[in-house]
Specification:
Number of strands: 8
Distance between the termini: 42 Å
Helix content: 40-55%
Shape: globular
Largest sheet: 8 strands, mixed
Order of helices and strands: HEHEHEHEHEHEHHHHEEH
Strand content: 5-15%
Radius of gyration: 18 Å
Strand order of the largest sheet: 3-2-1-4-5-6-7-8
Number of helices: 11
Length: 326
């Protein structure tokens, strides 16, 4: 059932937020990686985790932007969390557009010999013009799903060694609007078979399918995998929307966003809930789909199809075998 048809979805607009920064427990001793942590939801998530004592790696493509974000975060944490110790923040180079670079980033982290208690797969691109990744794969699918697939699976043994641990997969309400059939494996790279909107929806459906399949594989462990739709948040994610809407409609969208969208600090609360709340472990919450703020609903029927989940997993593994150097 579409989320728009679920009473639970509409209730979220009329109920108090189920999580807040004040409810985040002490994260001292925890090691976390947040992809795309230099801006938007990733930055807000990184600040909250580091402000509560976690050692956080900012997994980003641009070292310059990441280092600027680290300096900004240090000042912000000093103001927001005056009792917190000096933030422990590090840059980890990660280019999700290139599967070999994703594997290299994971290997770089593993070489440090640290545990990994939390992985937040936050980074993504939205409604970009049609393009192929460094590996010749449709770019939104490559960046939003495949890059994280490579990065996560390469880190998985370390995450299991560090349990209890958690993996957070960011998706979107847009996962309900993919190409016909959900994921068109055979025509993935055919621009004529998809639109700028359906390509984004396809990549976000892949996020849910991956999260569900990963949670099932980890069912007998203390690694808790959950999926999040952060909601309507004022971030840089729509920076390519001029292509989709045109300059005039984009200006209107920007005005609506300024008036109605959540700030990244508020929008990040749902992923912070599944990343840090004791409820996740105490209630054995895994493989679930959450919307703002920390409310669970059912994702689309496509995403609940275990056969499709497994087909995507096998398809992704094959692409990794064909493209990633060992």
């Amino acid at each position: 059932m579409s989320s728009m048809k679920q009473l639970a979805y509409w209730k979220t607009y009329f109920t108090p937020n189920r999580y807040s920064h004040d409810l985040i427990p002490d994260q001292t001793g925890k090691v976390a990686i947040v992809t795309g942590a230099n801006t938007g939801l990733g930055y807000a998530t990184m600040v909250a985790l580091a402000g509560h004592g976690a050692h956080v790696f900012l997994a980003c493509r641009s070292e310059e932007r990441a280092l600027n974000a680290i300096e900004k975060a240090k000042q912000e944490i000093k103001g927001k969390y005056p009792q917190a110790p000096a933030p422990n923040l590090e840059f980890l180079e990660l280019d999700l557009n290139d599967m070999n670079k994703c594997k290299k980033a994971a290997d770089e982290f593993l070489s440090k010999g640290l545990p990994l208690h939390l992985l937040v797969n936050n980074s993504g691109i939205m409604t970009t013009p049609f393009a192929l990744s460094a590996d010749g794969i449709e770019q939104q699918f490559a960046v939003n799903h495949l890059g994280h697939f490579v990065f996560t699976t390469a880190l998985l043994d370390r995450i299991k060694e560090s349990q209890p641990s958690r993996i957070v997969v960011l998706s979107s309400h847009a996962h309900e609007r993919p190409v016909e059939g959900g994921i068109d494996f055979d025509t993935l790279n055919d621009e004529k078979m998809s639109t700028i909107v359906s390509r984004y929806g396809r990549s976000k459906l892949a996020n849910v399918l991956f999260g569900k399949a990963l949670a099932r594989r980890l069912a007998d462990t203390q690694v808790y995998v959950n999926i999040v739709h952060p909601g309507f948040v004022d971030t840089e994610l729509v920076r390519h929307n001029k292509v989709l809407f045109g300059a005039v409609l984009l200006r209107i969208l920007e005005t609506i966003t300024a008036l109605m969208a959540m700030s990244p600090e508020v929008g990040a609360l749902t992923q912070l809930y599944v990343a840090t709340s004791p409820e996740i472990v105490n209630k054995d919450i895994r493989g679930r789909y959450f919307v703002p703020i920390a409310n669970e609903i059912q994702p689309s029927p496509f995403s609940l199809d275990e056969a499709l989940q497994e087909k995507l997993w096998a398809f992704s593994e094959k692409l990794v075998e064909e493209n990633v150097r060992t």
